[in-house]
Amino acid sequence: MRSILCFGEALIDFHAEGTDGHGYPRAFVPFAGGAPANVAVAVARLGGQARFAGMLGSDLFGDLLLDSLHRAGVGVDDVVRTDEANTALAFVALDARGERSFSFYRPPSADLLFRPRHFRAEAFADTAIFHVCSNSMTDPALAEATREGMRRARAAGALVSFDLNLRP
Questions:
Q1: 25 vs 89: which has the higher pLDDT
Q2: What pTM was computed for the model?
């Protein structure tokens, strides 16, 4: 079976839990997140063949994400680790209307350091769909890696899927 290769960000979403007497979160609980990583997990849970490509920090949060992807049945051979930056973090709280509000702690973060050379030569051999998120286009060097992944995917006959999931 051919697979979907989801590329880009995997990060830790810290969800607010409870509030103190002044309306501020009492605690934040970590969850594996990042739009492309979430897509890979959803496909795997539905019985599809899913893989994730991206860069994680060589830190506790990178370990948590790698373990979470692996336990969900997502292939992680295309994940690269780095000591040059930490894994990206996002704090998620509900605003007065009950809508999610995000505070990202990203640049510099490991996901932004992925370069075209980090794609394995065989990464696209069995890829039916190459899925990316618009966040991968916000940094010039990462955007070049994203475009290179798109080129390689198309050359291998894969469909390119682009998630317009940009949050200011």
A1: 89
A2: 0.92
